[in-house]
Every structure is written in C-alpha cells, then in structure tokens.
Automatic annotation (TrEMBL):
<dbReference type="GO" id="GO:0004070">
    <property type="term" value="F:aspartate carbamoyltransferase activity"/>
</dbReference>
<comment type="similarity">
    <text>Belongs to the aspartate/ornithine carbamoyltransferase superfamily. ATCase family.</text>
</comment>
<dbReference type="GO" id="GO:0005829">
    <property type="term" value="C:cytosol"/>
</dbReference>
<comment type="pathway">
    <text>Pyrimidine metabolism; UMP biosynthesis via de novo pathway; (S)-dihydroorotate from bicarbonate: step 2/3.</text>
</comment>
<feature type="binding site">
    <location>
        <position position="270"/>
    </location>
    <ligand>
        <name>carbamoyl phosphate</name>
    </ligand>
</feature>
<feature type="binding site">
    <location>
        <position position="65"/>
    </location>
    <ligand>
        <name>carbamoyl phosphate</name>
    </ligand>
</feature>
<protein>
    <recommendedName>
        <fullName>Aspartate carbamoyltransferase</fullName>
        <ecNumber>2.1.3.2</ecNumber>
    </recommendedName>
</protein>
<feature type="binding site">
    <location>
        <position position="175"/>
    </location>
    <ligand>
        <name>L-aspartate</name>
    </ligand>
</feature>
<dbReference type="GO" id="GO:0006520">
    <property type="term" value="P:amino acid metabolic process"/>
</dbReference>
<feature type="binding site">
    <location>
        <position position="145"/>
    </location>
    <ligand>
        <name>carbamoyl phosphate</name>
    </ligand>
</feature>
<dbReference type="InterPro" id="IPR036901">
    <property type="entry name" value="Asp/Orn_carbamoylTrfase_sf"/>
</dbReference>
<dbReference type="GO" id="GO:0044205">
    <property type="term" value="P:'de novo' UMP biosynthetic process"/>
</dbReference>
<feature type="binding site">
    <location>
        <position position="142"/>
    </location>
    <ligand>
        <name>carbamoyl phosphate</name>
    </ligand>
</feature>
<feature type="binding site">
    <location>
        <position position="114"/>
    </location>
    <ligand>
        <name>carbamoyl phosphate</name>
    </ligand>
</feature>
<feature type="domain" description="Aspartate/ornithine carbamoyltransferase Asp/Orn-binding">
    <location>
        <begin position="161"/>
        <end position="307"/>
    </location>
</feature>
<comment type="function">
    <text>Reversibly catalyzes the transfer of the carbamoyl group from carbamoyl phosphate (CP) to the N(epsilon) atom of ornithine (ORN) to produce L-citrulline.</text>
</comment>
<dbReference type="GO" id="GO:0006207">
    <property type="term" value="P:'de novo' pyrimidine nucleobase biosynthetic process"/>
</dbReference>
Amino acid sequence: MSAPVTPSFPHRHLLGIEGLTRPEIEGLLDRADAAVDVSRQVEKKRNVLRGRTQINLFFEPSTRTQSSFELAGKRLGADVMNMSVASSSVKKGETLIDTAATLNAMRPDIIVVRHHSAGAVHLLARKVDCAVVNAGDGAHEHPTQALLDALTIRRNKGGIEGLQVAICGDVLHSRVARSNIILLQALGARVRVIGPSTLLPTGIERFGVEVFTDMRAGLSGCDIVMMLRLQRERMNGSFVPSVKEYFRYFGLDRDKLRLARPDALVMHPGPMNRGVEIASDVADGAQSLIREQVEMGVAVRMAVLEALATHLPNA
Ligand code: CP
C-alpha cells in the first residue's frame, strides 16, 4: 500500500466509531481508497504485516467480515489464524476472559473479534497485550461495516456531506445502524431511520436522526437507502412479524424506491433476506451497491490493519 496519506491513527485498538474524530475517520477512508487500488492489482501482496500474527476470533457466524479480515491480513503479509466458537473450548465452558488470556499467551499481534454481547470486545481489549478490532459486538457497534459503507458512498457520490441517508428496517437490533448513524453524522450526512415502531430504539431522536414509521414518507428525497435484515437472533422471540406483511410495509421494492431521489443508491450490509426486507430485482438492480460494499470491505479492513500496525512493537 502507499505511504500513509493521512494523519497517523492514534488508537491502539478499533473498538467502535464512537470516539473517533472526523479526521481519523477520513484518514482511514483515504487509506482504504489506496487499498482498493492494491486489491485491484494482479500482485496484491504487501509486507506491512509480514512476520505478524492475526487471530480472527468469531463467536457468531460471519461470511463477509471474517473472510475479508482474513484476505486483508493475508494481503498485508500477516499469518492469519481463524477461530470459531464451534471448534474452540468455549463449547466446553471456557469464559471469554480465559479464552482471551489463552490466546494472549501465544503472543498474537492483532485479534479481530466478533461476539454476541455488546461490550465484550472492549472487555477483551483490556485483557490482552495486542491490538483488538471489533468485528461486531451484539447490537452495539460494527465499526468496519460503517467504514466500508462510508467508503462505498464516498466513491459513488463524491462525498458524504449533506447527503440524506435512510437506514431502514430492524434498527433496534442493528450494530450496523448504530455505527453508521455515528459515522455518517460525523461526516455531515443527514440520517433518518425508518421502521415499525417496535423495531426502532426508544428515544433514538436524541441522536439527531429523523424518525419515520411510514416507509413511503421516509424515503422521499433520500440519496442513500440502506436496508437492514430482521435480526431474529437478537429478538428472543419477542417480535416475529409476518414476512408478507413486513415486506408489504417495510420491504424495499421498485415501487417504493421510486419515492427516493432518481439517483438514489441502495445498500445492504448483508446477509440479505430477499423478499423480506428487499426485493430481488432491487438488490440486483442498477441502483444497488451491495456487491461493491463487499469489495470495499476488504479495502477497509486492510486500511484498519495497516493503521493499527503503526502501534505494534518494533513497527
Ligand atoms: N455485514 C456483515 O457483518 O456480514 P457477515 O455477518 O457475513 O460478516
């Protein structure tokens, strides 16, 4: 990757978007832009993390985040080890702290963690000596998802300042929504959330977002329509709507998309449930950025690992 074009990233860990300044966020996005160029070259390998060990520790399933962190680490030259709960001693009752201490004793340089509990990644970061990256903790934060979403928007719209972004669906259980609200507002976007009142956090207005429970009203004038899946794994059975009815009122189809700006772009962090929150022809249509988000995911994770590498011993 190119020499850093940004102010250096001052944090040892990336635990959330909350607490990052606008220049720090923009610095990571600039690094990620450079990483896109690297990823598109035939020879993708760089030596930024050569000799370093990266452990991907996933307590929840993942397709995009885990594989893109693995690719990002390998493209930067790291030795990458993937650990899932299914194949670990967590299944035998080992605690998060003991798991962290065990891995720490093997002297990794970076641990990337996904966990079902909000705050678990912060706790783990206090127990290890290496850099820690939050790959999603409960309904709390998913910082690299918000960064890749911002990079995708910036590259397609030329900037984020002044854009009207709608985040639609199950906002209540979404770490993606939370990280995106913080990040997009930090970069000057206006954010609205749209969903049934049962899937919107009580008092979310205090975060400066506009709230709509009518999707047709909420989509009016939007530049970006970001769809979220129903995160049933965090609902404890409390809200399982009829899929047909949910799609009728809150699913994005071509008819509803016409209510946004004509040049509006559609995003989804994945995994998608076609026919539940988004129609197939919209997901695969000309206004969709969903595949580009996946590509930007690798670049953003390369940028984050590169930024954290500057704090590793003997860097
Ligand atoms: N967006 C996202 O976090 O996807 P995965 O669960 O597949 O990693």
